[in-house]
Design a protein that fits this description.
It is a single chain. With about 160 residues, the protein is α+β, with helices and mostly antiparallel strands. The chain has a single domain, classed as Ubiquitin-like (UB roll), CATH 3.10.20.90. It contains 6 helices and 5 strands, in the order αββαβαααβαβ. A 5-stranded mixed β-sheet has the order 2-1-5-3-4. A hairpin with a 6-residue loop joins strand 1 and strand 2. The chain is globular, with a radius of gyration of 18 Å.
């Protein structure tokens, strides 16, 4: 029989999110990958706050709401993300949701072999501060697999 301590029964579940920081134009990564634990029932706003609280030099002149969070469709190894070719290949798409990605995948399957241009699922999409963590980061990524990129604002903003 397994017994839970009283504090363990009260502690809310957490999700570990692996992230890397990129400059405002997606030209390069800044620093190494890092995990941060956030409440599983929290929002991306909570993730932004936790990341800013790390007090890294990259964040010194940024308010946490200025940090843009981009979800990778498929978690990547840090060395893959650091590859300039990878960063150049991703085009931020705005607030595309999981449902829209699934619709694009369905359209791609339907148009395959019909001579139509294939729909292409976006490799990355922006998560808004109000988005729920549990909806976008359902399963924990293996260690060192980057789930999100944190984009710094342009200098002077």
């Amino acid at each position: 029989m397994t017994y839970q301590t009283q504090s363990a029964a009260r502690d809310p579940p957490v999700t570990s999110v692996w992230f890397m920081v990129v400059d405002h134009e997606f030209n390069c990564t800044l620093g190494d990958p890092c995990p941060v634990d956030v409440p599983s029932d929290g929002s991306i706003f909570h993730l932004q706050q936790k990341i800013k609280a790390l007090d890294w030099y990259q964040f010194k002149h940024s308010h946490y709401v200025e940090l843009r969070v981009w979800k990778l469709r498929t978690p990547k190894l840090a060395r893959e993300v650091k590859n300039k070719g990878y960063l150049a290949s991703i085009k931020p798409s705005g607030g595309i949701s999981d449902e829209e990605v699934e619709m694009e995948d369905e359209e791609e399957r339907e148009t395959k072999g019909k001579g139509k241009a294939k729909a292409r699922a976006k490799p990355i999409w922006r998560l808004l501060p109000s988005d729920e963590i549990s909806l976008h980061l359902k399963e924990p990524a293996p260690q060192n697999r980057i789930q999100v990129l944190v984009q710094l604002p342009a200098s002077g903003k």
